[in-house]
Design brief:
alpha/beta; six-stranded parallel sheet; globular; binds magnesium ion
């Protein structure tokens, strides 16, 4: 069995963010008269370079001197994400769909449980799949080691060097990074060695059972 990350590994999260940041931009334009495109571009760039763990709404509020609390914007972010997931379909990478259909895969993802479960349900509905998944609040927490130790996946595939590989690396589980989605521009060298993947692939197309065997053999 292998563990695979969800956001930006199986699909490009920019498809959701474009919708959500446009909605937030339009709200700010209506409320404060700032062109929505400026807000949209700022949020998109910040998400790409600083990742979504960073409090991007705090910076936005400070930069534009907005009379609104960053928490309210964060709540709007959550609501518009839910709206997207109810109205639109997530489009998987083709190689991701093949992996889900052919390999023994468990999706291991972090974030708000409600939202992550809606994403899974959206994909199941859209592609007629039945997926196995685990949602954790924060991948960096040491207590997540237990999940890897109990299930002993053969590898972990993810995209984000800041969060995805630290815990499996500590347990000697091979880690693979794909350079897809929102964080593809972030270099492995941006993080400490303990956080870096065993190998990096351009996309899931480069993943194969043979590669997995070679990785396990060291
Ligand atoms: Mg990810």
């Amino acid at each position: 069995m292998i563990f695979v990350d969800l956001d930006n590994t199986l699909y490009n999260q920019e498809q959701i963010l474009r919708y959500v940041f446009r909605r937030i931009g339009r709200f700010i334009e209506a409320e404060f008269g700032i062109p929505w495109v400026e807000v949209f571009s700022y949020l998109m760039d910040a998400a790409k370079s600083k990742t979504l763990r960073y409090p991007i709404f705090n910076d936005l509020v400070n930069l534009l001197h907005l009379d609104i609390s960053p928490r309210r914007l964060a709540e709007m972010y959550r609501l518009y994400t839910v709206e997207y997931l109810e109205r639109r379909r997530i489009t998987l990478y083709r190689s991701a769909l093949r992996l889900l259909e052919t390999a023994d895969v468990v999706i291991y993802t972090e974030g708000c449980r409600e939202v992550q479960e809606l994403k899974i349900a959206n994909i199941e509905r859209g592609y007629g799949l039945k997926l196995r998944f685990i949602v954790v609040e924060d991948k960096l927490r040491r207590e997540n080691s237990g999940i890897f130790e109990r299930t002993r996946p053969e590898a972990y595939i993810g995209d984000n060097p800041y969060t995805d590989f630290l815990v499996p690396n500590r347990l000697g589980i091979p880690t693979l990074r794909v350079l897809t989605g929102l964080y593809r521009g972030i270099l492995n060298e941006a993080v400490e060695p303990a956080y870096r993947p065993s190998i990096t692939l351009r996309s899931l197309r480069g993943f194969s059972p043979l590669l997995l065997r070679r990785l396990k053999a060291g």
